[in-house]
Amino acid sequence: MALVEGCKHSLEISIPVAEVESETNRVAADVQTRAKLPGFRPGKAPSSIIRTRFAGDIRQQVLENLIPKFLQQQLDAENLSVVGTPDIADVHFHSGEPLRFKATFEVVPEIELGEYKGLEVPYHEPEVTDADIDKRVEEIREQKAQYVNVDPRPVEDRDFAVVALESTGGVDGEPVKTEEMVLEIGGGDTFEAFTENLRGLTPGDEKDFAVTYPADYGAKRLAGHTVQFHATLKGIRRKELPEVNDEFAQDLGDYRNVEELREAIRKSIFAQRQYEAEQEAKNKLIDKLVDAHEFPVPEVFVDRQINNRVEQSLRAMAAEGVDPRSIKLDWNKVKETQREKALREVKASMLLAKVAARESIAATRDEVDKEVERAARQQKEPVAAVQVRFEKDGTLGRIASHIQTDKTLNFLFEHARKTAEA
């Protein structure tokens, strides 16, 4: 065996003449039984005619039968774990001579696992202050707000103006009419020009005004344009927030009073911040693990990961309404820009698998079953049907692999030396 580069190896294999002749005779006999030639009953044509007439077919079938068989024998003998499909070249196949060929392929590299316990990582337990809880309570109050009509009077800041709007000129010259739009006067989401022109109006009042949109305005159709509007104020509403008391807490869930609600909010904020902090620490642990281990990676793994990254990006675009078919990808450019990230991701995956094997970390049947049950609930399908489908399409294996990775990262985090973040 010869090492070509990185994970790429090559083998030059010679198949004995006796094996080649034996296989050739077997294939020729098989062709003879099925061949239909003019003047001969099926299976009765002479072997010499069969070998002449079907020489190309016989040759191809012998190659397809012998090359994979003897290649696999050699790979097993040398204990090589091949990834991808071997490239077969320099085939030498002549009558009375051994069949020789060269196979080039990539193998899974041997990884010498270095130190992975006790890695140093910045981390500290998150804190939740009363101000954090107050902010979350205010967000809940906003969600539970009610908007009530008020008696006619001039519009003030913090009022919600109910207006009918009609553009009378501007973009494309086409009028656009909106029977009812609610705008918070002086609100952060309300364009300043509308606040200035609606402030002080009384329900029933009408007003014409121009709005000039800045060049960097979010809606490109309007950016940099001046639009004429005719507005009719139809009504005024005020936002009423619920009072924070025990009744408010009870309406939100199984809480007896405000204190229990605030404690639940504290735990929720803490859990979210703890998860985010741990994820950040785990990402840093992965980076340290990758940086500390140098080993070659099969190109087929890297290409596969680049494909995965591209597919994720295309799915994200599709979710935002962009047709992936409209994207013209320069695959060489994609490989160039994505290669380094993909390479590190593959290395991380291989190292985590190595640590999992060393520490006997694996997904349990119960853990996998729970994920299948969760998927079945989401898809509103019987668990048994989802189980069968996941077994067939490989999802079950991916679930187990994902669980194993999470458990391995938890192991690394638990055994890491946590230092205070700067």
Can you give a write-up of this model?
By secondary structure, the protein is an alpha+beta fold. The chain folds into three domains: 2-107, Trigger factor ribosome-binding domain (Alpha-Beta Plaits, 2-Layer Sandwich); 146-240, Chitinase A, domain 3, CATH 3.10.50; 255-419, Trigger factor, domain 2. 49% of the residues lie in helices and 19% in strands. It is built from twelve helices and eleven strands. It has helices at residues 17-34, 47-53, 55-77, 130-143, 192-198, 246-252, 258-291, 299-319, 331-358, 365-379, 383-393, 395-414; strands at residues 2-5, 8-15, 82-92, 99-107, 120-122, 146-149, 160-169, 177-184, 206-212, 226-240, 417-419. Strands 6, 7, 8, 9 and 10 form a five-stranded antiparallel sheet that branches. A hairpin with a 7-residue loop joins strand 7 and strand 8. Helix 4 packs across helix 7 (258-291) and helix 7 (258-291) crosses helix 12.
